[in-house]
Design brief:
CATH architecture of the largest domain: 3-Layer(bba) Sandwich
Structural class: alpha/beta
Radius of gyration: 23 Å
CATH topology of the largest domain: FAD/NAD(P)-binding domain
CATH class of the largest domain: Alpha Beta
Number of domains: 2
Distance between the termini: 31 Å
Bound molecules: flavin-adenine dinucleotide
Helix content: 25-40%
Number of helices: 13
Shape: globular
Strand content: 15-25%
Length: about 400
């Protein structure tokens, strides 16, 4: 059995865990991050909401480290369907209408199920209300036949390759020839590189503003986040274990984490930034396969790892079994009379400053989507990661 020792353990490497690890390491702590595979941040669309009020210098620094542009006036970005909307910050590859103030936007069309350039252009024009014009350009050879059916993230990854990017850029140059003196912006799907920032290079080559629409599910934004997070962890000296935590135990003397491969981790403090249903930290356990199960035994949503001092719930109390005889039904999680729905609100019950409810004496704090009733936004998760780390430092 492997046993690792760390000063502070951070469970989860989405934006909340990353922010916590950043603050703790900067304060001189030896931090070890444990994370499984993807969470909400990996699936996210590249737009930051939820940083309400003043944005601190540390929050701005973290946004920058993660390759996100924070600007005033608020960025106005365009989603996959051509609808503009504002955000607090955005993946820097995304086109900001406020920053470039376009006069004429060109949108490519090509035979690809996930990109309807004509619909994007029509929708954008509807919302432009005379601020700018939109034109489409047929770009049947912009992607290779293999790329045409590949996910957006795969196309973006392909454009990290210099030879592929050079060919892509040359094709765009030839397509934009007829717009040379009139177009002021080029709007593309979310393809502009993962490790390498391709939008500024294209903007230089084409002499206009170039950017993406925001991502669909599991696109380039989450991949870029992971690349930048890992670079930042390496720079800070944060150590990382990839693996699924199966149990956490805590006592006055310290914290222990057990991973499903048998690895054990010991630390003096813990930040739980394990996300919600999307990351697999919350689950609906399998119900007993018998009818007429007593209420006390009906399955309810719970944490997917054992942690006796953490209580899952919402609105200050644990979830009770309702719905079918087997427990909470999925419909009950989604179509509730509550806003946000139970699915969005379920998490770890916390009290003051992210401390787990009922276990305030422990050196443990909870952050991000893992917190019950917290807004499920990138900005709120980043802020709560910072605050959870600061709260630990003050104990
Ligand atoms: C499709 C989509 C679109 C979104 N759009 C927006 C938007 O427009 N604007 C906005 O502001 N926000 C948006 N969000 C929400 C935002 O992305 C999330 O609120 C935020 O990223 C949550 O970050 P987190 O760090 O709290 O959790 P997560 O990113 O879910 O991270 C959880 C981490 O915990 C780890 N983990 C979980 N369980 C275990 C375990 N047992 N063992 C080890 N590791 C574990 C996971 O591997 C992961 O690293 C969107 C989210 C999604 C999914």
């Amino acid at each position: 059995m492997t046993v690792l020792d760390a000063e502070v353990i951070v469970l989860g490497a989405g934006v909340a865990g990353t922010a916590a690890a950043h603050v703790l390491t900067r304060a001189g702590k030896r931090v070890h991050v444990v994370h499984a595979s993807a969470g909400a941040t990996s699936l996210w669309n590249g737009l930051v909401d939820g940083l309400t009020g003043d944005v601190s210098a540390e929050e701005k620094e973290l946004l920058g480290v993660l390759g996100l542009t924070f600007a005033r006036p608020r960025p106005r970005v365009i989603n996959m369907f051509g609808m503009p909307r504002t955000a607090v910050a955005h993946d820097s590859a995304i086109l900001d209408l406020e920053a470039c103030r376009p006069k004429l936007i060109v949108v490519p069309t090509l035979p690809r199920p996930s990109w309807d350039g004509r619909a994007v252009s029509a929708m954008l024009e509807t919302y432009a209300k005379g601020d700018f014009d939109v034109r489409t350009v047929a770009a049947p050879k912009l992607l290779s036949p293999g790329e045409l059916s590949a996910p957006d993230g795969t196309v973006a990854l392909g454009l990290d390759d210099e030879a592929r990017f050079t060919a892509f850029s040359a094709e765009l140059e030839s397509l934009m020839e007829r717009w040379r003196n009139t177009a002021t912006a080029l709007l593309l799907p979310p393809w502009l590189g993962v490790s390498l920032a391709r939008a500024p290079r294209l903007a230089d080559t084409l002499a206009l503003s170039v950017g993406e629409v925001s991502c669909g599910l599991a696109g380039a934004a989450g991949m870029r986040f992971a690349v930048r997070r890992d670079l930042h962890f390496a720079k800070l000296g944060v150590t990382v274990t990839r693996g699924r935590c199966s149990a956490v135990s805590a006592a006055e003397s310290g914290i222990s984490l057990e991973l499903s491969d048998g690895t054990s981790l010991r630390g003096t403090a813990l930040v739980v930034a394990s996300g919600g249903f999307v990351s697999g930290a919350m689950e609906m356990p399998r119900s007993p396969a018998v009818s007429d199960v007593p209420v006390a035994q009906r399955s309810v949503p719970s944490l997917s790892f054992q942690a006796p001092f953490l209580r899952a719930g919402s609105g200050g109390s644990e979830v009770r079994a309702n719905g079918s005889v087997f427990g909470t039904t999925p419909e009950d999680l989604i179509h509730t009379m509550r806003s946000p729905s139970l699915l969005d609100a379920l998490g770890i019950l916390t009290g003051e400053r992210g401390s787990p409810l009922g276990a305030e004496g422990l050196r443990v704090t909870v952050a991000g989507d893992a917190v019950a009733d917290a807004p499920r936004t990138f900005g709120a998760a980043l802020r709560s990661g910072i605050r959870a780390a600061q709260a630990l430092l003050q104990r």
